[in-house]
Amino acid sequence: MTHKVNSYVAGRWYEAPGAGTEVLDPTTGAAIAEVSSEGIDAAEVVRYGRELGGPALRAMTFHERAGLLKQLAAYLTEHRDAMYADYATTGQTQGDAQVDIEGGIQVLAVYASLGRKEMPNDTIYTEAQAAPILRGPGFVGQTIYTSRPGVALLINAFNFPVWGALEKMAPTLLAGLPVIVKPATQTARTAEAMAKLIVDSGILPDGAFQFVAGSGSALLDHLGMSDHLSITGSAATAALLRRHAAVVERGATFNAEADSLNALVIGPDADASSDEFDLAVKSITREITSKTGQKCTAIRRVFVPQDRVQALTDALEVRLAKVVVGDPRSESTTMGPLVSAQQRADVEDSVRSLMTASRAIIGGPDATPSVDGASEDNGFFAPTVLLAEDSHADVLHEVEPFGPVTTVLPYRDLDEATRLVGRGGGSLVASVHSNDPQVVREIVRSIAPFHGRVLVVNRDIARGATPHGAVVPTLIHGGPGRAGGGEELGGLRGVLHLMQPTSVASSADMNVALTDRWNAGATQLTPEVHPFRLHLEDLRLGDTLTTESRLITLEDIEHFAHFTGDTFYAHMDEEAAAASPLFNGRVAHGYFILAAAAGLFVDPDPGPVLANFGLENLRFVQPVYPGDEISLRLTAKHKAVRAGAGWGEVTWDVEVRNDKDEVVATYDLLTINASKEG
């Protein structure tokens, strides 16, 4: 009996009535699934996410949401065999499955770490420091990011049924938005296996995750302001959704990541014997065969100096001859079929269009692989390399065969190469293979405006670089123009662009109440004891210590110089220091000023301050001369309590002044402070 892919909506699993869309195994032609969303109440799905999942996530801090991601990554890792079980029915090999499944779990883990390390243990994120507006310090402005009270509809492509969902989910859940995952029909069975694990884990709050197999068009009719629509797919599909009323009339935010004509450029310095050339051959081969070329980041155009075309195609022919095209269930297979017979037909049509300005030198639409056990209407297509007859022909920069195909385009000089790369109309990624810094500088600066990511490969990173097509969670995944005009991931960027930025202007004290961060215009409070004697619970933002002064002497400066070995002329040579345009004579070391400042503010006895773990934003504003006196202000700026740990971190605003009341140094001091429970 054919497997029926179910949806998980409004807190329950749902099986649609009727047969649904039949999905065939692209190798054997056997029916492997039926997919339908008939009967699903789209309004209820959206409402359930907004009214249950949204409030539950927004009540959590970023650290708590990060904890969910960490738990989910661990659970999926433990139970990942369920996702591998039927992966071959997508036409992909075990290696392809690993890229999809392990890669998706890795994104969850990366964002779990990011949420803990780069975001506050709070429900809002504040940007930079509160800045004075107009002239007075008491009226300040600052931008905050809050979670939108909506849902995120995540529409995924067929090529990455697991990673495609998880890479969108990770930053979205961290941003406080519940998700509705809509998988591609052709690989919905594998996506369902992932969804079942997520639901069975019980980790996410009710309504934070829903899964709709089949058509998701009805969901769009219920999206509006505060909702987010994200699509991975073709440029045509992205353009259609971008014009939907949910976006243009009701104001849902929109992000598209679309297929693009990604490029690899072999620099003029990379001759056929170079490491860079060899690495390019390996990269091209990998991108042709990995997931049968069905990757939005795959290399579609290869730009090579015209005198190295033969060397490149010969090398590719040798490598591609080793590729074993066959049933992905076989361990000997290194490349499986395309996802469907229809996809094979689409790729064939695209290749024939490209062949109006190129010729097939490896493979091609007529080089049909013979695979034992394959149905007559299968998805197999041979690894194919085309050679451009005219690198400037429009069709070569407009048509993308979404399969195991790349086109080699000769170029005369770098100017021509970079102009041709830009003809792709916007791409997700390009690779530059060169060991010449000037060549790299020229190419990258010229093509960067057309790309979301550029990978520079040379011999120094031969073993350490990620593959061309690998999407890195901390880097941008997206691109301009044809690539969709949006971006995903990119570390913290991927979270913040899913949140609502709001600039708030207020009194300095109101800003402290809003952001839980003291600012320089806010009230300085005077505690009854030294602030280092206060536990986290008792320390107030704004608690301030103003110290006595210390005289800086020439003896101090010389002792510090000889003790540390820092005998820079500005500290030791009066005549040379006086000749400097910056100084009027010998000056104190900046780091001596820091040490002397610590001597002024430290309370030496054991107490709630357990350790100093660093400084941030250090600036030496102006020099300190022998005979100057320094004093400082130390103010509690921010507290981050670690629940259950018995301690937390405190950021102190430090301002060092001389006896003329001039600021000579500023920095943030970071300490670990005990709480009463510790």
Query: How would a crystallographer describe the biggest sheet?
Result: 7 strands, mixed
**How big a fraction of the residues is strand?**
25-35%
Distance between the termini: 60 Å
Strand order of the largest sheet: 15-16-17-14-13-18-19
Classification by helices and strands: alpha/beta
Share of helical residues: 25-40%
Task: Indicate the radius of gyration in whole angstroms.
Answer: 30 Å
The overall pLDDT average reads 95
Number of strands: 28
Shape: globular
Number of helices: 20
Spans with pLDDT under 50 lasting ≥5 residues?
none
Protein model, in words:
- By secondary structure, the chain is an alpha/beta fold.
- It is built from 20 helices and 28 strands.
- The strands form seven sheets. The chain has a seven-stranded mixed sheet with strand order 15-16-17-14-13-18-19, sandwiched between helices. Strands 23, 24, 25, 26, 27 and 28 form a six-stranded antiparallel sheet that branches. The chain has a five-stranded parallel sheet with strand order 10-9-8-11-12, with helices on both faces.
- The chain is globular.
- The two termini are 60 Å apart.
Secondary structure topology:
Blueprint: E1 4-5, E2 7-9, E3 12-14, E4 21-24, E5 31-35, H1 42-58, H2 62-78, H3 81-84, H4 94-117, E6 125-132, E7 139-146, E8 152-155, H5 163-174, E9 179-182, H6 188-201, E10 209-211, H7 217-220, E11 228-233, H8 235-242, H9 245-248, E12 253-258, E13 262-266, H10 275-289, E14 299-305, H11 309-320, H12 341-354, E15 358-362, E16 384-388, E17 405-411, H13 414-422, E18 427-433, H14 437-447, E19 451-457, E20 476-479, E21 486-489, H15 492-496, E22 500-507, H16 508-515, E23 544-546, E24 550-551, H17 554-564, H18 569-572, H19 574-579, H20 590-601, E25 609-620, E26 629-642, E27 647-658, E28 663-674
Parallel strand pairs: 1-5, 8-9, 8-11, 9-10, 11-12, 13-14, 13-18, 14-17, 16-17, 18-19
Antiparallel strand pairs: 2-3, 4-5, 6-7, 7-22, 15-16, 20-21, 23-26, 24-26, 25-28, 26-27, 27-28
Helix pairs in contact: 2-4, 4-5, 10-11, 13-14
